[in-house]
Request: fold
Amino acid sequence: MTRSSELSSTPAFDLEGGFDERRALIDGALDRLLPGESVEPVSVHQAIRWSVFAGGKRFRPILLLTTGEVFGARPEVLLTTACALEMIHTYSLIHDDLPSMDDDELRRGRPTCHIRFDEATAILAGDALQTLAFQIIADESLLSADKRVLLVSELGRAAGTPAGMVAGQARDLAAESRAVTSGELEQIHSLKTAALIIAAARCGAIIAEATDLELEAVGKYAAQLGLLFQITDDLLDVTATAETLGKTPGKDARAQKATYPSLYGIENAHQRAELVHQEACAVLERIDKPTEPLRAIADFILNRKA
Amino acid sequence: MTRSSELSSTPAFDLEGGFDERRALIDGALDRLLPGESVEPVSVHQAIRWSVFAGGKRFRPILLLTTGEVFGARPEVLLTTACALEMIHTYSLIHDDLPSMDDDELRRGRPTCHIRFDEATAILAGDALQTLAFQIIADESLLSADKRVLLVSELGRAAGTPAGMVAGQARDLAAESRAVTSGELEQIHSLKTAALIIAAARCGAIIAEATDLELEAVGKYAAQLGLLFQITDDLLDVTATAETLGKTPGKDARAQKATYPSLYGIENAHQRAELVHQEACAVLERIDKPTEPLRAIADFILNRKA
Reply:
């Protein structure tokens, strides 16, 4: 239950304002943490910045900042880990877009990294971004060494295999062009998408020294959020136009990829999204903190148009 | 200067025996730390083990163990970081062998990872190995959190960009098919090869709580060792047979890659190797520990046949 005393002292969360402010904080920190474009090897650093500053929504780092602030941490102690998360996310996009993986030429309306540069440079840019993600956490002197190792461990588990993002991408590729069950589909997405979203919320809570029970609850909230994110992503692929989406819509269907609309139909997928949103919000009720901004994030994902 | 009291109490280093024993320790630890081949996603875990257990010499982890022991650490506290280093090295080999990079089909006499599996699996196997390297250090409860963050930071700097392995690989690719100066060649190799070898020695010394002066000296020794390693590698590419080398010799020359023999000629490259070996050994004289095993490693690299 949210305590009314805390609620009354917390101004209503300004969703769009809060997002923009956090996005600017994150972009500024990323700019400081990444090697400049004129630093050798220039090609790799240009490719890194091309992909990191491609107009991404910064959903994961915003979730980390928001969760950390809900549990009482100041933004400045959260920022480096938020950037590390965005670096891991960006590296995965660069590698997923490669010809031997999803073979995408367009992302957010711009050429993907291997199209703008070349394949070797894209592979190296992704590799270097992953390295840098762990390195900047290890170097973050605003956090105790105990916290830094917890964060590296959390991020590693969420990004790697057998229980993280890389495992999800491998299973996704293995599932292409064959029928998958709804259970398999949720397993793939819980690894490929939700693992990093759960890590975002948990890392914010770890930095803010949330209790184990709070960590567990916030992880469950984020698991639902990750699922919601994937369902709305699949729906947008079917219903959005190329202009709002920044990539070719309908690509999943043509690739015979298992998606929520393809498995459940569009209407049922919408209902599933509503249900998952409700479950995410129900978990927040168990957290005795002003969780309104986390609820606002769930609302935003449910209603997103891009 | 090596103290004679310590020398007399240290048995002469049994080079081959010491190598074999350490290699067995490392292989056992890698087997424990890597996901099993039957764990999903099976393809990625098979690809990881195919590449990690490919008959590698374990030069970097052996150097880490040896350096740590010279400075007084027990092997068991060194082993996880040694494995992390081998994982980073193996991930870099998998990605370097890809068609868009060095396009190698054979390594140590066996098909490379993307040939045995496929490109997507090889990219993911490399990605997951890098993640796991940082994660296992963060999770190593035998080391203090302070040491763990130092090690993640050290390894990150050595593996990434602008001052590590990925930067070296990018510069190496950029230098293909054009004339490079000897200065450029040394810069490329100091990043691509020596950075991780320096990290091996420094990580061992960090775990063993060497002083800053000792760390600096052991880093200089390892920088020479890295250079020596590269010169002898280039020489073997020219002089060895496919059978002893496990890959097609002469490939560098056909790819018009800058190498020590191509820049200096074979005889001068041999002389350069001798000189670098002497410099490595001279640095060891400044370390007041029983450094004989480190000298033995330098001897071994100078005289290696594969």
Remarks:
- The CA atoms of residues 134 and 153 of chain A lie 9 Å apart.
- Residues 1-12 of chain A have pLDDT under 50 and may be disordered.
- Residues 212-239 of chain A form the longest helix (28 residues).
- Chain A has one domain: 4-303.
